[in-house]
Amino acid sequence: MTNHYHLYVALSGHGFGHLAQMGPVLNEWRRRWPEARLTVQSALPAEVLRQRIRGEFAVAPGAADFGMIMADALTVQVAESLAAYRAFHAHWDERLAWQERLLREAAPDVLLADVPYLTLAAAARLKIPALALCSLNWADILAGYCPDAPDLAELRAPMLAAYRSAVAFLRPTPSMPMLELDNARTIGPIAGIGQNRRLDINRRLGLQENETLILMGLGGVEMRPPLESWPVFPGVRWLTPPAWKVERADMASWAELNDCSMLDLIRSCDALFTKPGYGAFTEATCVGLRVLSVARDDWPEEQCLSQWLMEHGNAVKISHRQLATGDLADSLRELLAQPAKPPIAATGAAEAVDWLDRIQAPHCHLSNTNSR
C-alpha cells in the first residue's frame, strides 16, 4: 500500500501559544501515522518548531498571518495592527494566489490551521479538506480591539468566511466563544506533559528540598521585568529565560538545565510566573502547577483563559505595577497557601487527531498502523 497521506499545517507565529497547541496534536498524529508526510508553514524558526514537534517534517516558507503587532509581551499596538490588516486585505487576491501556489506545490491531503485564515481560504479554493484549531480567531481578536473601526465588517468578512470554510473549527478548552462560527466544535484541553526532573534540578542548582522554585516566562514576544530592583524572597529561587541575563544569587538561567525541555521545567517547578496564554495556562493546570499571572485585561482571549484557570487550577493574578516593582510577597503567600487542585486531563490532542482521521479517510489510502 503506497504512502500518500500528507498533512499540511499552517501555524501562526504570533508568540509560542499556537505551537503549544499544535505540538501535542502533531505528536499524537505522528504516533498514529508514523510513515505519513508532514509540512509545517510558520514564521517560527525551524529550531523552535522542532523543540515541540517530534519526528520528521518539512518547513514551508512564508508566514500566512501576523496576528497582532506587539510592543512587548503584554502590549498590543492597536493602531498599527489595524493598519496592517488594512494593508494585508488591500492585497488579498495576491496573497491568496501566493498561498494557493504553496498548497498546490505541496499537494497535501488535509490541511490543519492554527489559525491563519489565508491558508484556510486557499484550501477552500483548492478543495483541500481543512480543519481549523485554536482557542482564538483573528476576526474576534480584531473586533475586540477595534470595535469602532468603520471598515471592521469589511475586514472581518473574508476572515470569517475562511474560518467557516473548514470542516470544523476546533475550540480546545478553554477558548473564546466564537459565536459567529457555526462550525465551531469544542474539544478538551491541549497540553504537552514533560517529565519531573526536580531531584536532578535541585542537585544541579544547589536547591534545598524546602525551597520554592518558580519558572519565569512571558511567552514568545520578548519582555523583561526590571529584576535587578526586585526584592529577595527568602526560600524562593527563580528560573529565568537565558535572554534575560540576570545576575542574582536567587535567580538562575534555565540555560543551566539545557537538557530539560520547557515542558520538563513546567512539570518540575513549584509555580509558573507568566502572562495569560493558552499554552502556559493549560500546561500548568494539566500537571497541577501553581500560576502567578500578570494581568492582560485588554487581550480579548484573557477572560476565558483566566476564568478557566481560576476554576480548575491554583492561580493568583498580579498587576503591571507588581511586575515592575517585584511587590509579590502577599501574592506569593496567597498562591502557595491555596489547597492544591488535581491536574486536569489533557484530552484535546487525541480528540483533534480523531477529527483529522475522520476527514482524511476518504482522501488517502495509507493504513494507520498505530491506531488507538
Describe, in plain words, how this protein is organized in 3D.
Helix 6 (138-145) runs antiparallel to helix 7 (152-165). This protein has 372 residues and is α/β, with parallel strands linked by helices. Strands 3-2-1-4-5-6-7 form a seven-stranded parallel beta sheet, sandwiched between helices. Strands 10-9-8-11-12-13 form a six-stranded parallel beta sheet, with helices on both faces. The chain has helices at 17-32, 46-52, 78-90, 92-106, 117-126, 138-145, 152-165, 198-205, 262-268, 278-285, 302-312, 320-325, 329-337, 348-360; strands spanning 6-11, 37-42, 58-60, 110-114, 130-133, 168-172, 184-187, 212-216, 236-240, 251-253, 271-274, 290-294, 315-318. It has two domains: 6-190 and 347-363, Rossmann fold (3-Layer(aba) Sandwich), CATH 3.40.50.2000; 198-337, 3-Layer(aba) Sandwich (Rossmann fold), CATH 3.40.50.2000. It has 14 helices and 13 strands.
Low-confidence segments: 364-372
Which percent bin holds the helix content?
A: 25-40%
Number of helices: 14
CATH architecture of the largest domain: 3-Layer(aba) Sandwich
- Give the termini separation: 21 Å
Q: Let me know the CATH homologous superfamily of the largest domain.
A: Glycogen Phosphorylase B
CATH class of the largest domain: Alpha Beta
Structural class: alpha/beta
Mean pLDDT: 94
Adjacency order of strands in the biggest sheet: 3-2-1-4-5-6-7
Major beta-sheet overview = 7 strands, parallel
What is the alpha-carbon Rg in Å?
21 Å
Number of strands: 13
Shape, please?
A: globular
CATH topology of the largest domain, anyone? Answer: Rossmann fold
Run of helices and strands: EHEHEHHEHEHHEEHEEEHEHEHEHHH
Could you say how many structural domains there are in total?
Answer: 2
* Estimated share of beta-strand residues: 15-25%
